Automatic annotation (TrEMBL):
Residue span, SHOCT domain: 252-279
UniProt-recorded name of the protein: DUF4429 domain-containing protein
Pfam families assigned to the protein according to its UniProt record, in alphabetical order: DUF4429, SHOCT
Organism: Streptomyces misionensis
InterPro entries: DUF4429, SHOCT
Domain DUF4429: 12-106, 137-226
Amino acid sequence: MGDVLAGFHAVWEFESDSVLIRYERGIRTPKLFQALGERRIPLSAVEEVRLAPGRRGTVVLRLLPRAGADPLMEAADGQLKEGSDPYRLVLPAERESQAASCAEELTARLTGSGPADRYLVAAPEAPLQFKAYDGKATFDGTSVRFRWSSTGASSAKWKAGDQSYPVTGLSGVEWRSPEALEGYLRLRSFDAAPDAAPEPDQDPAAVVFGLGYGPVHESLPFAAAVLAAVRSHGPVPAAVPRCRRDPADIAERIRHLGELHQAGLVTDEEFAGKKAQLLAEL
């Protein structure tokens, strides 16, 4: 195609079989974009191309990746905020005709549909690391290591000691955004029983996030890189549904959440969302 679209925070270069996305490094650019730098999205990884009106005189060109084609989006599991979606390009409304032309041509060049049987978009490269609330997580491409913090880690984690997990023994990764309550990164292993998994702050196979700890632009690329390494050693099994929680435990957590809400430490939106999430576990 040879066309180029420069939008807010990114430039898309359209090639015959892919889209090269170069993210800006400006102050207002989402930190996740800056961390990613650039990404090449093969058209075989794209399910659909959409163009829609945006806010305040803008239009939005968006690629919808195929399920299982991008480890970053698989790890995110729909938790990214709209403004941090790396597949969205926001443009001034006066460039709508050019964007529409690109969208039409891209659609004509799409070659795949449905779930992908392998990752088609490259994962962030190791080594990677980030600081969680209760420890430091590092990944060298073959093993994930958790080193516990003397101030944030629970006694259960201190008793278990620092942990090292070769990717050959892992079956997947569970990432919960730090922008929501109780964010964490948990490693799933083949020999662990998902129904018996302890709470993340008590689980030596998990690190928990907090204010300023495990931010999206650090912990999500980390999770994606680990997930891609796991997949390279074999297919990732489907996630096993969690067991139902003890109603008394759920009631206690909702009570504690209500206290945080009354104290002004949790917004109305966060309270309603987390309460609904807890009730869904009954």
